[in-house]
Specification:
single chain, about 425 residues, alpha/beta, five-stranded parallel sheet, about 15% strand, binds ligand SAJ
Length: about 425
């Protein structure tokens, strides 16, 4: 049985390790966080993903995944460690390089080393390959290096790990084909071979495209508000065109992907990355825009109390990384508003009690994440417990048509009826 080390047991590494162990590989999961290894060994699966919990627990019980703080001799190594943004928004490769260095003592001729972490273009060719060659290996001859970006959607990782097409970018064609052999064991989608720098750039383009599209939606929404036009209706109708697909406006763009990856292109070509940089600026400005709308809506309400519904970076996940909700809350707290938070994914204790406590005497329900639960709440019933029956729905989860004859006043990001008649 082929032995494989997965370095980095986070949102991508742990599901990948579980998937490979379920498809016939002898897996050793490696992580520098001893705390995390202890949690895993105790069956505490710290990542909420459908099917992940059951799969990992079963594999741990059967010895399908062994754990180690350092890499062990194996046939292949997959590196899925964080690549955070530094202060200047450039990519921090510290963890990736530390992972590569940690493999060197056990690396052997014929090994395959696969980078899954999102990295700037030319990282494999110009930064990782020299480290391996300085250790005496000839990349493409006696060791193989490839870049294989993941494109799974948090909240649906286990399903997308097998279904999605996969890009395999090798430092040489042989590197790509050696890495492809591993992914063919579980990927039902197409396996698309290319070179490493193309694969690195492709991954960044995928997320930059999505970030630019969302920025267009956010910009159109601000323009429509200014012109008294319902932005959501404009986007809905525009998307009826066979070749138009404008995404949804929102309170901003969070997560460790779209909010970070475009900067890895900008750092390599700042003078040329104009649209990409502007999109980042537009999306990063949305929390301030939303906070400004909240203040307008609550103008004149003394010591206003706001019930924030949803603080994770997107609906139906508990991940808070780069969440725009946190920036909005910080702005409102520093402006003197009293904030109560209700997020069934982040604070999974007593939902009913938390919900009541949040809305009691509130002057606004501010929806900042599109959690499934928020789509079916009875806002009329909640309004009866509020001091001011007001909802600002920045994720457009509420069907306003259901509340036309009720007491509650609902704004969403495009609804000009609310915007114009109440001057937001
Ligand atoms: N968002 C909007 N409007 C939209 C869609 C999303 O404001 O129409 C916001 C979300 O609320 C969230 C942020 O953007 O704050 C990112 O959400 P997302 O739906 O793009 O999901 P991510 O960031 O969790 O996953 C993305 C995906 N990339 C693409 O769809 C191109 C996923 O496939 C990647 O694997 C992942 O980034 C990654 O890890 O790179």
């Amino acid at each position: 049985m082929q032995k494989l080390c997965v370095l980095g047991l986070g949102y991508i590494g742990l599901p990948t390790a579980a998937m490979l162990a379920s498809h016939g590989y002898a897996i050793t999961g490696v992580d520098i966080e001893n705390e995390l290894l202890l949690k895993l060994a105790a069956g505490d699966i710290y990542i909420e993903e459908p099917e992940l919990d059951i799969t990992v627990k079963k594999l741990m019980a059967e010895g399908g995944i062994k754990l180690s703080p350092v890499p062990v001799p194996a046939d292949a190594y997959i590196i899925a460690v964080p690549t955070p943004c530094q202060e200047d928004k450039s990519c921090d490769l510290t963890y990736v390089l530390a992972a590569v260095e940690s493999i060197l003592p056990v690396a052997a001729t014929g090994n395959v080393i696969i980078i899954e972490s999102t990295v700037p273009p030319h990282t494999c060719d110009r930064i990782i390959k020299p480290v391996l060659e300085a250790a005496g290996f000839k990349v493409g001859a006696d060791i193989h290096l490839a870049y294989c970006p993941e494109r799974v959607l948090p909240g649906n990782i286990m399903q997308e790990l097998t279904a999605n097409n996969r890009i395999i970018g090798g430092c040489t064609r042989r590197c790509a084909s050696r890495a492809a052999e591993i992914f063919k064991s579980f990927v039902n989608g197409q396996i698309l071979l290319t070179d490493a720098k193309t694969a690195e750039m492709t991954k960044l383009l995928e997320n930059s495209f999505r970030d630019v599209n969302i920025a267009l939606a956010n910009e159109i929404t601000q323009i429509c508000h200014h012109l008294g036009i319902n932005a959501l209706e404009v986007i809905r109708l525009a998307n009826q065109h066979p070749r138009v697909n404008v995404l949804d406006p929102g309170p901003g763009v969070g997560g460790h992907c779209l909010a970070v990856d475009p900067y890895f292109i900008i750092e390599k070509a700042p003078a040329l990355s104009k649209i990409i940089a502007q999109a980042r600026q537009t999306n990063s400005g949305m929390p301030q825009y939303i906070a400004g709308k909240v203040k307008k809506l609550l103008n004149g309400v003394d010591k206003a109390r706001i019930a924030v519904f949803g603080i994770s970076y997107k609906g139906n996940v508990s991940d808070l990384r780069e969440s725009p909700a946190l920036a909005i809350i910080e702005d409102l707290v520093s402006a003197g508003y009293r904030i109560a938070i209700y997020d069934p994914y982040v604070y999974a204790d007593n939902h009913a009690a938390d919900l009541q406590r949040a809305v009691e005497n509130a002057d606004m329900i501010l929806i900042l994440a599109d959690h499934q639960e928020f789509k079916s709440l009875d806002y009329d019933a909640l309004a009866k417990q509020m001091r001011t029956p007001l909802v600002f729905d920045t994720k457009n989860v509420i069907n306003c048509n259901e509340y036309h004859c009720s007491e509650i006043i609902i704004y969403n990001l495009g609804n000009v009826y609310c915007a114009a008649s109440h001057g937001i």
